[in-house]
Amino acid sequence: MIVEAVGLRKSFGPTSVLEGVDLAVPEGSVLALLGPNGAGKTTIVRILTTLARPDEGHATIAGYDVVREPAKVRGVISLTGQHAAVDDNQTGLENLVMVGRLMHLKRGRARQRAQQLLEQFDLTGAMNRRAKTYSGGMGRRLDLAMSLVARPRVIFLDEPTTGLDPASRLTMWHAIGDLVRDGTTILLTTQYLEEADRLADRIVLLDKGRITASGTADALKTQIGGERIELYLADEVAARKAAGLLGGLADGPLLNLPSDGTAAHLHHVLDQLRDEGLLPSRVSSHRPTLDDVFLTLTAQELR
């Protein structure tokens, strides 16, 4: 495993932020960290990127200990945060060459690497424009390109597409996919569940500093009950009464039930509701989404 963490614990004063987190990430894969605000995602990233020390536990990146060998860890990783680290007054080309020079590349090699990255991220046409004229999506692509100048083995992406429009987000997803196909390992935090579903080989759900579930997106969806039935009742009172009869979760007039996906089960549900005078106005069924997983396993709907 290129990224490993065992028993990570971290507190700030009396507040416990991480309570024994274990991670294992194979090389050339994408791990997504999901969880509500305050779950501990950013603290994990800060520990793994040597910006914070754990109170207990240990972690390694490419075999280097994040506490005892921070300089070696920094030599194989890159971190792209929520806000672009781009110099707005420099051109795209100048930004990339500057990073190359800071990493001790000779000027010609730095310029050559910059040209490669500008082409890879479809920024060649804007290479001589000042970065402050770039759109949000172009700025985030440039920021990601800057993090790749030194060809890191592991990239930490902290909500990389926050604030981007759908088209720019899709472009970033393609860029991230290309990196993984080239063998780069990515640890991703995101507030977009569709993003984790699309990009991640494995997902870790955090809540209150603990891992509540982990696995592939499909495995997590299956874990909360396969198919779901949505029934729209007359009002919230009827939905709550139906939930008392059948189980499931009532949200306003909507009742959400787990199902095995068979017609027999749907008939059984409708027969029970009819006997109680609670026939729904509309019925639909669907496979669970990551939204369902997130809400169910973090108990977000109860907060």
TrEMBL record:
Residues 3-233 form the ABC transporter domain. SUPFAM superfamilies: P-loop containing nucleoside triphosphate hydrolases (SSF52540). Gene3D superfamilies: P-loop containing nucleotide triphosphate hydrolases (3.40.50.300). It is found in: Cell membrane. GO terms for molecular function: ATP binding. The keyword Heme does not apply. Its main location: membrane. It is a peripheral membrane protein. Keywords: Antibiotic resistance, ATP-binding, Cell membrane, Membrane, Nucleotide-binding, Translocase, Transport. Pfam families: ABC_tran. InterPro entries: AAA+_ATPase (IPR003593), ABC_transporter-like_ATP-bd (IPR003439), ABC_transporter_ATP-binding (IPR050763), DrrA (IPR005894), P-loop_NTPase (IPR027417). Belongs to the ABC transporter superfamily. Drug exporter-1 (DrugE1) (TC 3.A.1.105) family. This is ABC-2 type transport system ATP-binding protein. It comes from Kribbella orskensis.
